[in-house]
Amino acid sequence: MKRMLLALALCATAVSPMAYGQGQWGSSFTADEARDAREKGEIKPLNDLLRPIRNQYGGNMRRFDGLYERGGRKVYVIDWVTGRGELVTFTIDARSGRVLSKS
Fold this sequence. Notes:
4 helices
């Protein structure tokens, strides 16, 4: 049992989810860069964009994966647990709030 727990712990630390996300999405924004983009009106605050998702799917955000540049636009990537307990990853256009993908 101890060996199995140790093996699971080693697997969990081998590849960080953030490292995977950065490789998949390209460059991520620092907190200062995100704040500056929000103040310039380039992006909307994440909390404003979560309301429609909460209304449609229920549940809550499980994890904020980050703000990334993708195809010339800024996108938020979040993990969401729906009201039915399903885990969904949303990619949201940070300027318009439009859901670009859901998986």
